[in-house]
Amino acid sequence: MTRPSPVIAGLLLRCPHCGKGKLFKSYLKVKDRCDVCSAKLGETDSGDAPMVFAILILGFAIVGAALFVELRYMPPYWLHAVLWLPSLAVGSWFLLPLLKSVFYAVNYHYDAGEDLTGRMQ
Q1: DSSP per residue over 67-109, as a string?
Q2: Is 33 in a helix, a strand, or coil?
Q3: How many angstroms separate the CA atoms of 6 and 17, rounded?
Q4: What is the Cα–Cα distance from 74 to 71, expressed in whole angstroms?
Q5: pLDDT by residue (tens digit) across 37-57?
Q6: C-alpha 95, offset from chain centre
Q7: What is the pLDDT of residues 75-103, one digit of tens each?
Q8: At what angle do helices 49-73 and 77-109 cross, to 10 degrees?
Q9: Cβ neighbour number for residue 39 with a 10 Å cutoff
Q10: DSSP 8-state secondary structure symbol assigned to residue 29
Q11: What is the pTM of this model?
Q12: CA distances from 47 to 13, 87, 97, 110 (A)
């Protein structure tokens, strides 16, 4: 059986081994085993990369949009808070599972986890 592309499996929130089973059992909690292929999933870790990329992507988009709105319309500061804080919350809620799944699938695909002694491979 050939493994699916880690990026495609990650974007679809699927098992990186078979590409069919769900990866998460809750919002950001990875299942111990795949329901379809029984692959061990709980051993690989995506690290802090998903959070860093979410900060960079959302920071660029929201700061750019806030600057555009400020220079174009000059709204009061409370309106900025009403516009951009919910945008940041919804963007984070949407992006974090996608990014975590992609980084998890890439780590799984290249077997980039820790060995039994705890050292990185």
Answers
A1: HHHHHHH---HHHHHHHHHHHHHHHHHHHHHHHHHHHHHHHHH
A2: strand
A3: 9
A4: 6
A5: 999 998 888 889 999 999 999
A6: 6
A7: 999 999 999 999 999 999 999 999 999 99
A8: 150
A9: 15
A10: P
A11: 0.86
A12: 17, 25, 13, 15
Q: Evaluate whether 29 touches 13 at the Cβ level (below 8 Å).
A: no
For residue 15 the two structure tokens come to 């098992």
Amino acid identity, position 103:
F
Report how many helices (DSSP H) and strands (DSSP E) the chain contains, helices first.
Answer: 3, 0
12, 5, 6: which is closest to 103 by C-alpha?
A: 6
CA–CA distance, 93 with 116 (Å, rounded to integer)? 33
Identify the band that residue 117 occupies on the pLDDT scale cut at 50, 70 and 90.
Answer: very low
Contacting residues for 94 by C-beta, under 8 A, at least 6 apart: none
- Residue ranges per structural domain of the chain: 6-109
pLDDT at 113 over 90: no
